[in-house]
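WARN  no MSA supplied for this record, continuing single-sequence
INFO  ligand: 2-acetamido-2-deoxy-beta-D-glucopyranose
INFO  echoing inputs
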Amino acid sequence: MANQTIIILLLLITIFYKATGHAKSPSPAPSLPFPCLPTPLSPSYPPSPAASTRRLLACIHVVDLPHDVHRHHLLHPCLYGFVLPDPTTYRININQQDDELLANFTTTLQGKVPPAKALLSIGGGGNNPAIFAQMASSAKNRAAFIDSTIAAARKYGLDGLDLDWEFPQSQEEMDNLGDLFEEWSAALAKEAAATSSWRLLLTAAVYFAAEFILADNRSYPSTSIRKNVDWVNAMCFDYHGTWNTSVTGAHAALYDPKSNVSTSFGLRSWVSAGVPAGKVVMGLPLYGRTWQLRDPAEHGVGAPAVGVGPGGGLMQFKDLMDYNVENNATEVYDGITVSTYSYSGTAWIGYDGAMSVKEKIYYAQGLHLGGYFFWALGYDKDWMISQRGMTTEGNHFLNFMIDVFYGHVGETTLDTEISAHQI
Ligand SMILES: *[C@@H]1O[C@H](CO)[C@@H](O)[C@H](O)[C@H]1NC(C)=O
Ligand SMILES: *[C@@H]1O[C@H](CO)[C@@H](O)[C@H](O)[C@H]1NC(C)=O
Ligand SMILES: *[C@@H]1O[C@H](CO)[C@@H](O)[C@H](O)[C@H]1NC(C)=O
Ligand SMILES: *[C@@H]1O[C@H](CO)[C@@H](O)[C@H](O)[C@H]1NC(C)=O
Ligand SMILES: *[C@@H]1O[C@H](CO)[C@@H](O)[C@H](O)[C@H]1NC(C)=O
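INFO  complex generated
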């Protein structure tokens, strides 16, 4: 996300990350956030109010797509976030609280049967992307960063590392990101060989598409990603929001007949860019975005609006479900965008309901993606949506996550946010 984004992020962050830098846009820059923005706002690894410090981002890889035969590859990673690189040394900074929590984090996850993978997430929305840009700009800085991440991973017994740089702002920064992944992966392999250990996993949170189609034409270093990264979590949401209140929008539309700002376009762009589908994980939002309709009688996707709706423009799934009941709202599944919305008077909420989630999971299966994740499980209403598409085995992992979420992992001290993956 870009600077404008920041605003948004604060709202969202609940979920996870945040926003950041400026996107330079060559053209008349659409004025608002999204368009100029590099990012969807990422709830996905959202920014939180204050965001970004310490939270458990539990990702369940919920197992199999029904026809998936690679069960032995199933993972159910949980991410701890966020930590940041020091602005001068570029080594990741792990403070005393992180130190205590991380020790518990890995112990708890690895004590599960089967053990879950514990990853450390670096970055997060709302943090200054310039520090990442500086870190990635020279071999010396990258080496300092990489070395510190491996040292931390081994110190705390982690299984992997996750980068959430939101976002590289130019093609040069994207190219540097490619170098970073290349050198990071090589360092992980070298360290694993030298210590006869399991190679640490390397993952990243990325924009919904492989190119920043709304800002300029900078693209992710897909060749390096394909070669060096275990999987990317594509943040497929925040296509529409508070930055444009003139019309309602499906903020995580699978399809958009009028533009390329859609999940189907984004996911396909990753595959077209050369990243194997099995390394692409689809993000699903467990939150809605709201508008105030101009006319209660005109309430479709794209209907005229005059402002933000309930919740200041953003509502967690569980809250919007309660809102729908309390306000006798009418819920509609929109097959064109593959999204769900509800309206009550002039209040309009766009989100993913059970039906759109199911359709999107079928879509992901059709593309043979690696999995999907929810941002964030903690926003679900009684696990209603996060159980979609799960098999018995999937439910086993859901139970596992419920245990983690409500159980041990520093529940009182951590901001727990969970997202699920299917791999
Ligand atoms: C796209 O980016 C390349 C550099 O990666 C640049 O040479 C080219 O001019 C850009 N094209 C447009 C239309 O911005
Ligand atoms: C808001 O979105 C609508 C529909 O996509 C678009 O026509 C309009 O130009 C946008 N307004 C702004 C200010 O970006
Ligand atoms: C969508 O992307 C395709 C392929 O990149 C391009 O040809 C097309 O013009 C784009 N459509 C819009 C509406 O931008
Ligand atoms: C709720 O809305 C439905 C139509 O959507 C209407 O038939 C019903 O009377 C409403 N109930 C209340 C209590 O307002
Ligand atoms: C670590 O776990 C132990 C045992 O579950 C608990 O008593 C302790 O408070 C935890 N420490 C932190 C910092 O959460």
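The chain is about 30% helix and 20% strand.
INFO  checksum written, moving to next record
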